[in-house]
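Batch manifest, entry 17 of 40.
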Amino acid sequence: MNKIFQRAKDHDNRDALAGFKELFHVPEGVIYLDGNSLGLMPKTCSERVRDVAQNEWSEGLIRSWSEAGWFHLPITVGNRIAPIVGAGENEIAVGDSTSVNLFKCLAAALKLRPGRKVILSEADNFPTDHYIANGLAGMIDGYEVCDLNPGDDLAEKLDESVAVLILSHVHYKSCRIRDIPMINKAAHKKGVLVLWDLSHTSGAVEINLKADDCDFAVGCTYKYLNGGPGAPAFAWINPRLQDQIDQPLSGWMGHLDPFAFTPGYRPAEGVRRLVCGTPQVLSLSTLDEALRLWEKVDRNTLFAKSRAMTSFFIGAVEEVCADQPLTLISPRDPAIRGSHVSFDYDNGYGTMRALAERRVIGDFRAPRTMRFGFAPLYLSFEDVARAVEHLKHVLDGQEWQRAEFNIRGEVT
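Output type: structure tokens
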């Protein structure tokens, strides 16, 4: 381990992002490798929540919809996300959950491709994507969801029956990155629209929605963007499509003139038509505050640190745990690997519980995947080295065998 800690020190001495860790609340003694599931809280967020509650809500009351800018939060917060994902100003709407935004965008996309009855979705995608696609298809006569399985030739699956292709840019288990420009080009050649899930991309992996000619994108904000538990998700539509789409959740806040209270629905211009009901002001304000620190982040430096950190972790684990039956399921090539690393292990659940007892927090994905997420803004290479040291002790000492570590909780 001494050589690993020395390499970690060398990395940390060159880390231009090291100062950002001071902006986050890090619980005492915790090594947090779960930023790919729920990011740490920026320190200023608690103050922002108090201000919204004690001043804007308590004192401003209903006037704050105008005076504090509550009404515009879905778009102003979206404008903070836009440069992180390569979108333009006023092109992202923030609100609802990722699942709800998937439903909106998928339904809108299907309406743009009348006569095509197939939704193509990767079989091993994050389950909510598949659930939403099947749920929507089941509501409309004649539609079906077809699976894109690992190893399938995408070009063979794309034909004139397919209306929409749903994919995750970064796979939630393996962390493999898909080639967005190549896939978009292949899909568009067959007249297929593509809906991208950026939940494990935003704030960790480089992406440029407009330059890569994407059609639709959705993503969550509570992972690498640190928006807090249940933070509202975002949705983006390519400007060339915005004024063509109708989304089915036509709530009053997506109306062209919501306070005219007219009986007929007329969609707002641009991406605001994706807004449905009343904005979640407290959570949107928290997210808005969390996103402020991104104004100072050099994203190229951040993406490079992510690649270096995940490579360092893989190398260290394989060096000190070489005698353990761990199977790396994430790509070795950092160019096609996102910002988490997954190992399969038969005793993975108990191992992650044992690590949590040691204050090393990662997560587990059934049936046997241990996931370690790396948020470059608040992790040091020394943190990673210490996590590897703990992992070695857990495995060598078979701490995962303890009965209390093998009782499955509701959340893993």
